[in-house]
Amino acid sequence: MEKIFANLKKGIIAPCYLLYGEEEYLINENLNKILDIILPDGSRDFSLFYLDGENTDMDSLMENILTPSLLGDRKVVVVQNTTIFQSRENLAKLIQKIRGSIDAQPAKAAKYFLTFLKIAGFSLEDLLNAGWRKITDDEWSKIVKGDAGEEREKWLPRILEICSDSELIAATGAGNAERLEEIFKDGLPAGNCLILTAEDVDKRKKLYKIISEAGVVHYFGEVKNETVRKETLQKQAQQLLEGCGKKLSPAAWIALGRKTGFDLRRSMLELEKLISYVGDKTIIDKDDVEDAVGKTKEEEIFALTNALSEKNQLAALDALKNILDQGTHHLIILSMLVREIRLLLQARILVDSGKLPKFTPGMEYGWFQKIIYPAIGELNAAGVKREGLIFSQHPFVVYNALRNCGRFTYPRLVKFLDELLELDRAFKSSASSPQLLLEMFLIKACS
Predict the structure, then answer these.
(1) What is the CA radius of gyration of the chain?
(2) Comparing C-alpha atoms, which of 145, 44, 143, 138 is closest to residue 92?
(3) DSSP 8-state secondary structure symbol assigned to residue 291
(4) pLDDT category of residue 436 using cuts at 50, 70 and 90
(5) Amino acid 112: pLDDT
(6) What pLDDT is attached to residue 173?
(7) Which residue did the predictor score with more confidence, 29 or 381?
(8) Residue 209: helix, strand or coil by DSSP?
């Protein structure tokens, strides 16, 4: 990126830039830096145009990039989150993203799903009201390469209900990409520049190859290493804080990371909020983080499942109200309760098996990691890491499940799963209040 900025400052501007990858915050930050160089603030009113890549059809895109600037100067068209570089080869990956975000970020999962529909050629209306069941496994596997479709019933009805409840509409088709390819071969009008951002691309697509040859492509990969992720965040945060004349105390940094998981985008958004919140204060401290950031949805969901595991009825009902007030869908809450009961049930089975070293609820976490957790790993001889199994969980999650499962008997936990299944049916087949049904379950489970 430094090389790209250096060329821009010399006046070397490519006809097209593609910034793509999983790190949305870094993409947007570097997009803004490019725009700052190409178009100073005072010249943007008639020279800068933004398009929503998920809903813009090909005709609108081509009209914008072929029309010269009204003032005869430079014109920049920015298409954010474009899907024109995706193909059916990306569908299995899209499904993973839908399933990975459906619990914590249902709105994001819905956006992924609408993109999935557009590329796969499915209609939202045709899939609703159990219409998805008409698609055979063979038909599904032909369209979605790498996904046999056996687990569709676990996520597809839920995402359809989220889209239906949110009144979301599937995006229009991508249109004729060949016409766009011809435009880039012939060249954009003098002074025009197209900047595209995307999360995923299929590098085998002809359009990608043409743009990579005619313009500049840069990939912002997800930073998975925790140490590197924190270092990247620290660097970005330091730039923002220094620019605003602020500092973050060590305790505030830890508190912020605990609430955001050191996720780059979330952390920087909360940091911007903190800078405004503290006003003239130079040092942002831990209390500022606690007051301004508040509890995230993840914290409230943890509070709910923790209260359920500890049979703390009042805390469970309070956490449920807070989650619902934040707009979390009741089916997401149900799935988290099911997950917690399943983990408690698996922990109960492990304890009752007699195959673990003696575990007591008061055991320290460090001792658990040293003695108990390795023994659990040895029981998983097949090395199964399937989603939902206790063997696939973080050691602290396993520790809490073992610590709390003693409050419940095996038959009682199995009965809870049956009741949660009935709750799921009631959500979808009756007019009963979801909040009331969830409250009744928590009161019973915590009694």
Answers:
(1) 25
(2) 145
(3) H
(4) very high
(5) 84
(6) 43
(7) 29
(8) helix
Q: Which long-range contacts (CB under 8 A, 24 or more apart) does 29-36 make?
A: 29/236, 30/1, 30/218, 30/220, 31/78, 31/195, 31/197, 33/1, 33/5, 34/4, 34/5, 34/8, 34/195, 35/76, 35/78, 35/195
At residue 330 the predicted structure's pLDDT band, cuts being 50, 70 and 90, is confident
- Say whether pLDDT at 147 is over 80: no
Nearest to 433 by CA among 284, 280, 320, 344: 320
Please tell me the distance from the alpha carbon of residue 419 to that of residue 430, in angstroms, as a whole number.
15
H-only helix segments in 326-409: 330-353, 365-367, 373-379, 395-404
pTM greater than 0.70 (yes/no): no
Cα separation, 300 vs 326, whole angstroms: 10
Average pLDDT over residues 143-157: 78
Answer yes or no: is pLDDT of 166 > 80. Answer: no
Cβ-based burial of 214 (10 A; exposed 0-12, middle 13-18, buried ≥19): middle
Phi, psi (degrees; rounded to nearest 5) at 318: -65, -45
The larger pLDDT score, comparing residue 173 to residue 353, is at 353
Note whether 149 and 140 are within 8 A (CB): yes
Side-chain-side CA neighbours of 342 within 13 Å: the count stands at 15
Cβ neighbours of residue 74 closer than 8 Å, sequence gap 6 or more: 13, 38, 39, 43, 47, 191, 192, 193
The most confident of 94-108, 150-164, 411-425, by mean pLDDT: 411-425
Among 119, 72, 73, 130, CA closest to 94: 119
DSSP 329: -
Neighbours of 150 (CB within 10 A): 10
Structure tokens at 172: 């229009």
Do the Cβ atoms of 249 and 285 come closer than 8 Å? yes
Q: How many C-beta neighbours within 10 Å does residue 22 have?
A: 15
d(CA 169, CA 160): 11
Amino acid at 207: L
Which tokens in the block code for residue 250?
A: 């060590």
pLDDT of residue 416: 94
Domains belonging to the chain, first-starting first, are 2-84+174-220 (3.40.50.300), 89-165 (no CATH), 226-293 (1.10.8.60), 298-445 (1.20.272.10)
Please state whether beta strands 247-248 and 48-52 pair in parallel, antiparallel, or not at all (unpaired): unpaired
Q: How confident is the model at residue 172 (pLDDT cuts 50, 70, 90)?
A: very low
Residues 6+ apart with CB under 8 A from 187: 15, 214
Query: What pLDDT sits at residue 385?
Result: 63
